[in-house]
Amino acid sequence: MEDLIERAARDLLASKHAIALTGAGISTESGIPDYRGPNGVWTKNPEAERRAYLGYQRFLDDPKEWWVQRLATPNIGALGNLDEVVPNVGHKALVRLESMGILRYVITQNIDGLHERAGTKNLYEFHGCFRKLRCTGCESRWAREEFDLKTLAAKGELPPICPKCGGIVKTDGVAFGEPIPQYVLQGSIEQAKKCDLMLICGTSAVVYPFASLPRVAKERDPPRRSGASASRPAVTIIEVNAEPTPLTEEGISDYLIRGKTGEILPKIVELATKLKG
Ligand code: NAD
Q1: What is the residue with the minimal CA distance to atom 25 of ligand 1?
Q2: pTM value?
């Protein structure tokens, strides 16, 4: 594994526009369970996955009732109280790579807000953030404290209404079946097309359209004809994950560093710092 850590450090240093894609795996070491890892919420309870797919339709059918239910159960399903968790050394390693001028963007599937709390500046929260609310019309986002939800509930004035466009406001977390906000989707695709290195951390890479981002990046590297000279690829895709994923199996990633993000990412950053001198 040490040789792959060195390879990743050297690849990051040689890159001109590196980005990171992250998933639930980077936050398990902060105490938040993932969904599909060996101890994942859905691995242990497939019924919970089935129920999760119904939530967005319920919002569309009756946003008022959806909000009433939502305020009665403030914790997001089985993920626990996300207000109490803190970033771990994996999140902080990505902040360090950004401050070294190596990492240009982090695109996360996580809704836990831990990248922002760790200090990542250039961030797309692809599936939103549990601390925020979003207008389903104009896509404006706010910290949830900006709406007095308890008073709105007491007055029977749910759902909250967007002060800018009059659209219906929902929690920012993107539900299954809900479209990804346009500015996040377009910005993420742009980053995937632009990057020359993609560091993919702690995702099973099965949730779309997020899982298409590595494929979008890889499209710039068509398979070489046998005998063609081996030039540097347009994009290097590195996975750091506890187990192989479809990206590993389909050869989308160039290599997998197998293990915990909280152990591997700090080692990569430490070595990159040393090599940079
Ligand atoms: P996933 O649960 O499908 O997959 C997580 C992957 O990370 C698995 O392959 C697992 O083996 C690996 N993993 C677990 N711990 C790891 C560690 N310490 N180091 C390296 N790898 C580790 O997660 P996903 O791909 O992100 O998809 C799940 C969806 O559910 C996402 O859309 C996300 O929004 C949501 N989700 C979010 C959170 C969160 O915000 N923290 C938690 C659970 C699920």
Answers
A1: 203
A2: 0.93
